[in-house]
Design a protein that fits this description.
Blueprint lengths: L3 H18 L4 H8 L3 H8 L7 H11 L10 H19 L4 H14 L1
Helix pairs in contact: 2-3
Length: 110
């Protein structure tokens, strides 16, 4: 189960992703929300959790339903997958042959 810090980071990541998808800078979104760019940055990094009123304003400015801000399954799965791959690579870091195979696979897909 995620703790509060994880939820703040996931929410912030989701807001940043939606903002970028809409082609908005932090400055433009912050201006629309009537908050500072620094405040928005702290929300997007998960350092601060926005007030409910601010969440409503964010959803409105991004033209999404408020519940879309919490649709962070993709971000959660992406973070978990990244951690899983990184942990597996750490386990084989001394096995040069396996690392070569991983490198070859990555060269094909990247």
């Amino acid at each position: 189960m995620s703790n509060n810090r994880d939820i703040k980071k996931l929410l912030g990541s989701r807001i940043a992703k939606l903002r970028k998808t809409k082609g908005l800078s932090q400055e433009k979104l912050a201006e629309a929300l009537n908050i500072s760019s620094r405040s928005l940055s702290r929300i997007e990094t998960g350092a601060n959790y926005p007030l409910p009123e601010t969440l409503d304003k964010i959803a409105e400015a991004l033209k999404v339903r408020p519940k879309a801000l919490y649709d962070f399954d993709e971000e959660y799965n992406q973070n978990e997958l990244h951690k899983s791959v990184a942990n597996k690579i750490k386990l084989i870091k001394g096995d040069i042959e396996k690392l070569k195979i991983i490198d070859e696979i990555l060269n094909v897909i990247v």
